[in-house]
Design brief:
Blueprint: H1 11-21, H2 27-33, H3 37-47, H4 63-75, H5 81-109, H6 113-125, H7 130-133, H8 136-149, H9 154-162, H10 165-170, H11 183-194, H12 202-211, E1 215-218, E2 223-226, E3 236-238, E4 241-243, H13 247-255, H14 258-272, H15 279-291, H16 296-305, H17 322-333, H18 340-350, H19 372-387, H20 397-407, H21 416-427, H22 434-445, H23 453-464
Antiparallel strand pairs: 1-2, 3-4
Length: 472
């Protein structure tokens, strides 16, 4: 890294770092990071732990067993059984809504934005969906594993995933035993999670499947358990190495393949910077990743301090995911998230339903986030963030005034040019197109000087609903 050209560092670069490494923020946050220098700012973001974040909803570890019991009661045709079964399912649906709302709130709250952004990456990488798992406790447990292990060595996270209860249910790994190893489970581990398509043989799939046998899930407590009798105890040969491998041994062998570091380095770069990085860049990142023992936090440090991360190709060229769009809008307007009854259906309509990725490949991202319908939906939702979403910390008129005072301080409201520049700095990563700037200026010109909150609100709606707001 010492041979790389020096990265220009200023408030604009700090704002770019906040948008990409986390979920954005107001100009004052970027201004606060700028004096720390590039390395200091990155270290600060990666070290944040998010103290005081909301606690997750209480989940039922025995949810699967409880459903089985209620289904048996249904077959007995007891009069109260159907009501009890319906009530329990309704309660679990409400808990699932609370789970998704809780995670969105963790992202919005700040103080751990980089950690939550990485947790979102791992959720899309080890894509697991409630549509099949159907257990809030297991989905929450996996999410907390991403958060706990996500910045450390990838080998530890990968080992946790091959025996993660939600993953075992999602990929049918809990049915895998020595007499019938689940090759699909092994294939997804190699193709989607560690090496990428074409970097393994069919023999590697078969042998890895044997290694992963024996792990199942206890429906009484939602924990994964190892059943020795269900495990293939024989010798396996995986990527040229032989031994009586189990799941942990197999992940160690797989993660040691040079391709693993390249696969993950490229995927992390694409998530945070831009698609299709040059092979030389990927090799450089992968070499550093291998040198640190696949320590993801150290790879992120290299990514966020790399000159190419701040290049024109990387800045304001990424289309915000629906989650990034919603969370960033809330942070920039100083408001709470939209009410769950609005926010959760909106996320689904825009294409990113948390805890419910569309397939084992996760979300495609990039240009796939937007089409004519979702662009209109995003634009229309701008009004909701300025009216329906309550300001922090409670919905009172003084707090609404405080929120708009933070978006546009009073000293910036005496001049329309100054106010317009301030709003562009708050909401946009790229200069507005002439049509957007014309609409903004038309709204500002309608108000008296100094501009009142209503004018600031209407002008903010223009920028939140603009095509440019979709870039970060």
């Amino acid at each position: 890294m010492s041979n790389l050209p020096r990265t220009p560092w200023d408030q604009a670069a700090a704002a770019h770092l906040l948008r990409r490494a986390a979920f954005g923020g107001r100009p004052e946050e970027a201004e606060g990071l700028a004096p720390a220098g590039l390395e200091g700012a990155v270290d600060r973001l990666l070290a944040e732990e998010g103290r005081g974040l909301p606690s997750p909803p209480v989940t039922d570890p025995a949810e699967e067993r409880r459903r089985r019991e209620l289904r048996r009661a249904l077959r007995s045709e007891e009069p109260a059984a159907r009501r009890e079964f319906g009530a329990y399912n309704q309660a679990m649906r409400e808990t699932f809504d609370a789970l998704r709302t809780w995670w969105l709130e963790c992202m919005r709250a700040g103080g751990a934005g980089a950690r939550e952004k990485l947790t979102l990456f791992w959720h899309g990488h080890f894509a697991t969906s409630q549509t099949k798992v159907r257990c809030n406790h297991l989905m929450l447990g996996q999410n907390e594993t991403f958060r706990r292990l996500g910045t450390g060595p990838f080998g530890a996270l990968c080992t946790a995933m091959v025996r993660d209860p939600a993953m075992l249910v999602w990929l049918d790994g809990r049915q895998s035993h020595g007499k019938a190893p689940n090759e699909n489970f092994a294939r997804e581990m190699l193709e989607l999670f560690t090496l990428g398509e074409g970097h393994y043989s069919e023999e590697d799939i078969r042998e890895a499947a044997r290694c992963f046998t024996g792990w199942t899930v206890n429906p009484a407590n939602g924990r994964s358990v190892f059943a020795p009798r269900r495990h293939d105890q024989g010798r396996k040969k995986l990527f040229g190495q032989a031994g009586k491998f189990g799941a942990e041994d197999a992940t160690e062998v797989i993660c040691a393949q040079p391709r693993c570091a390249e696969f993950l380095a490229a995927k992390l770069w694409e998530f945070y910077a831009y698609p299709r990085p040059e092979p030389a860049l990927v090799k450089s990142l992968a070499a550093h990743y291998r040198k640190t023992g696949l320590h993801t936090g150290e790879l992120l440090r290299m990514i966020f301090t790399h000159p190419e991360f701040y290049s024109p190709r990387a800045r304001a060229t990424q289309i915000k995911s629906p989650v990034q769009w919603m969370v960033q809008a809330a942070r920039e307007t100083g408001r709470q998230l939209l009410p769950p009854g609005v926010a959760l259906p909106l996320a689904a309509e825009l294409g990113q339903n948390l805890f419910m990725p569309p397939s084992v490949k996760g979300w495609d991202g990039g240009a796939a986030w937007v089409n004519s319908a979702t662009m209109i939906r995003r634009s229309n939702t701008a009004l909701l963030f300025s009216t329906a979403a309550p300001p922090l910390p409670v919905e009172t008129e003084p707090m609404d005034a405080a929120a708009w005072a933070a978006v546009a301080p009073r000293e910036m409201r005496f001049d329309l040019v100054t106010l317009g520049r301030r709003l562009e700095e708050v909401f946009l990563a790229v200069p507005p197109a002439p049509a957007t700037r014309q609409r903004l200026q038309a709204v500002l010109a309608q108000g008296d000087l100094p501009c009142r909150d209503e004018t600031v609100r209407e002008a903010s709606i223009v920028l939140l609903g603009s095509p440019e707001y979709n870039l970060c």
